Amino acid sequence: MTAHAEAVAHAAHDDRSFIRKYVFSTDHKTIGIQFLFLSLFFLLVGGLLAMGIRWQLGFPGQAMPLGGWLPQSVAPGGVVAPKTYNSLVTMHGTFMIFFAVMPLLVGVFANYLIPLKIGAPDMAFPRLNMWSFWLMIPSGGLMLASLFVLGGSSAAGWTVYAPLSATPDYSGVHLGQQLWCLSIVIFGLSSLLGSVNYITTVVNLRAPGMTWFRLPLSVWALFITAVLAILAVPILAGAVIMLLFDQTIGTHFFQPDVGGQPLMWQHLFWFFGHPEVYILILPAMGIASDIIANGARKPIFGYSSMVYAMIAIAFLGFVVWGHHMFQSGMNPTLASTFMVSTIVIAVPSAIKVFNWLGTLWRGNIHFTTPMLNALAFVSMFIIGGLSGIFMASTPVDMYIHGTYFIVAHIHYVLFGGSLFAVFAGIYFWYPKMFGRQMSERWGKVHFALTFVFYNLTFFPMHILGIGGEMRRIYDPTVYDFLRPLQPINVFITINAFLLGLSQLVFAANFIGSLFKGEKAERNPWRDTGLEWTTASPPPHGNFAETPHVYHGPYEYSVPGMDDDFLPVTTPPTGRAA
Amino acid sequence: MTAHAAAPSVGHAAPAQGGVGVYTQKVGMWVFLVSEVMFFTALIGSYIILRWGTGAQWPDPRTVLAIPITALNTFILICSSVSMVKAYAAATRDDQAGLKKWLLLTVLGGATFVSVQAYEYHHLIEKGFLPSSGVFGSAFYTMTGFHGFHVTCGVISMIWVTVRAFRGRYAGGNYRGVETIGLYWHFVDLVWIILFTIVYLI
After folding, report:
1. Which of A29, A125, A487, B104 is least surrounded by Cβ atoms within 10 Å, i.e. has the fewest?
2. Does A1 map to a domain?
3. ipTM of the complex
4. If you average pLDDT over each of A299-308, A327-336, B51-60, which comes out highest?
5. Nearest CA of chain B to the CA of A171: how many Å?
6. Contact B10/A541, CB-based, under 8 Å?
């Protein structure tokens, strides 16, 4: 039966021309993999920019290795120029947030996993889905191009605060900032098309028996994330369009000299920006939940509380944006309101952490590479979450606002949190995507190196922050009070380089396994999910027949069964139909 | 075998399994409209902050804008919403002649609205009221401009739907396309009523 089904599906495969199959494909799996390659490329770009930042902070005023290759206007004599440094900081944040981590989590996993995990043949609107990927090409292309235009790229930080960003008089950046805006508007369109698809697909294309409360937590997380994106990204688009008009057609939205309101930019940006933070962490939570249940061979602890916690986080995410603006001259009463709403988010976050620990408790834990990365996600998220509470308290924030403490915090949640979950997800679903296994041994080497150097890079930043080192500082050694901290900066820089080099192990494993990896079976991780009931990689159309779902998503170690997992498609009698 | 035959043609919204009983295009359009609401919220919210939140100098709109002609234009746009409803009603009755007639009238209404708006812009620019004319000019052109862009997109889509109607694509009770574009059309109309009120009248 299945062999026959595969043969038929394979025949269907061949109906499509090369272009339709691999380039302008409407197949959600191909689109997910396209997003994977594109966003890993941007991860590399963002990482290289970070290396430039770290060199300047560790060894200010010294020529960068290979810096002589850069144009004199960017790096005179190989030394990062002050304006270039501002560009580096801005573009590192922009690439990492909009073009690496967000597409890695949403573009890759929402596209690849949602239809497979809910038993749908494809997305609700496959052609819109294709556009959502292909809009990322001009968007990312414009952002890359902005690095090379006259006047340099945007240098106002990834938050592009007005009025610095609104007129070239302040920053000297002309075209670079305009391209930044244009790129983000196109990015918003891409995100919109994707989110409409994810929501509609989850609402309407679930297989028979796949009720809402049988959805895997990864699908729940991606669904809630899409709702957040639908509500938050248009605000960013509106704000960025106003900013673009300020620069191009002479409007005055953010220019104070003619009645504009620079502070309005901060409100608009953070009204998007805080939900964006949860867009970047919720899918990671979902992926980690799936992998932890699998690795611990236990049902997830408190499934429905996990779902409600994510809904609560998403809702609260919209009423906390002011905590980014405690230093903006905000009325202290309003700041207290934002402080309370922000600290309340610790409750659903803690529910999730306790549930992960509860899942691990007395589990039969298998320390596979995906599981190690998922465990790193949980532990790093705890550290990042705790430092978040520091920042949320107005009196503490007054002291550490805009210092390296916030840099440490964001990297603990965005690298330690999101990126470890991305690695976990890639190691976990790689066999499904490409039909081959990544090397477990090299995966563990990569994990160990990344985990160690990651912590050695980012943990000392807390100390720098408490010591008062400013967040976007060009040369810390010019300040007397920071000079004693300079050895920490050197230490961080060395570890950052080692962290960057460690990713070569991942790249080699990823690319090598594409060609030489061990052939993957259908279900190498002995997982219960629907995606593992079809071939690796799944054929066009995913399932030969519409699957029926009979169980919740995490039926591991069911008492009285021979196997320690019960696939969701096994009928309740326990015998295969 | 039939299941296999269905598999490659997927994506054209295979029958909803365990869905919410609303067809996929309609769910998608509603989700899209939610994001549109948020987009206009950004613009309208900024307008409210700039005008009432800061004590900035704000001209009386009546001294700058031509209210009567825009009021007429608003009436035309509302009429096109009515004709959209009539088109949808005709489609549900499988009344093809009625569907074509009312769709054409809707296209005409939308096109008239955009044309009058272009005339208004031309007139205002000749008078020297530009996007750079203070914060009011900035907000006026950005908000009405984006609304006009939405109407233009709506008219283009409506022409496409009308062509399909003339080709008989909505015969036999298959009126989903008409209903879906209708949702968008009413949304754009509703946004205009809000914009007209807060930009022109207040």
Report:
1. A487
2. no
3. 0.91
4. A299-308
5. 21
6. yes
B166 touches chain A (CB under 8 A): no
Contact B20 A259 (CB under 8 A): no
Mean pLDDT of A431-450: 96
Q: What is the pTM of this model?
A: 0.93
Answer yes or no: is A540 within a domain. no
Helix count and strand count (H, E) for chain A = 21, 0
Number of domains making up chain A: 1
Query: Could B50 and A242 be called an inter-chain contact, meaning their C-beta atoms sit closer than 8 Å?
Result: no
For residue B157, which of B149, A116, A288, A45 has the smallest C-alpha distance? B149
Domain boundaries, chain B: 22-201
CATH of B22-201, picked from 1.20.120.80, 3.40.630.30, 1.10.10.60, 3.40.640.10, is 1.20.120.80
Which amino acid appears at position A247 of this protein?
Q
Residues 48-107 of B with CB under 8 A from A: 49-50, 53-54, 56-57
Exposure of A539 in the CB half-sphere (CA atoms within 13 A): 25
User: Which residue of chain B is at minimal alpha-carbon distance from A203?
Assistant: B19
How far is Cα A120 from Cα A327, in angstroms, rounded to an integer? 48
A residues 511..570 contacting B (CB < 8 A):
539-546
Residue A258 pLDDT: 83
Nearest CA in chain A to B138: A251
Residue B33 sits at the chain A interface (C-beta within 8 Å): no
- CATH code, A417: 1.20.210.10
Per-residue model confidence as pLDDT tens for chain B (202 residues): 333 333 333 333 344 445 678 899 999 999 999 999 999 999 999 999 999 887 777 888 888 998 999 999 999 999 999 999 999 999 999 999 999 999 999 999 999 999 999 999 999 999 999 999 889 999 999 999 999 999 999 999 999 999 999 999 999 888 999 999 999 999 999 999 999 999 999 8
Rounded to a whole number of angstroms, the distance from the CA of A77 to the nearest CA of chain B is: 43
Q: Nearest CA to CA, how far is A547 from chain B (Å)?
A: 10
Q: How far is B127 from chain A (nearest CA, A)?
A: 17
Whole domain around residue A383: which residue ranges? 26-533
Q: Is B4 within 8 Å of A5 when comparing Cβ atoms?
A: yes
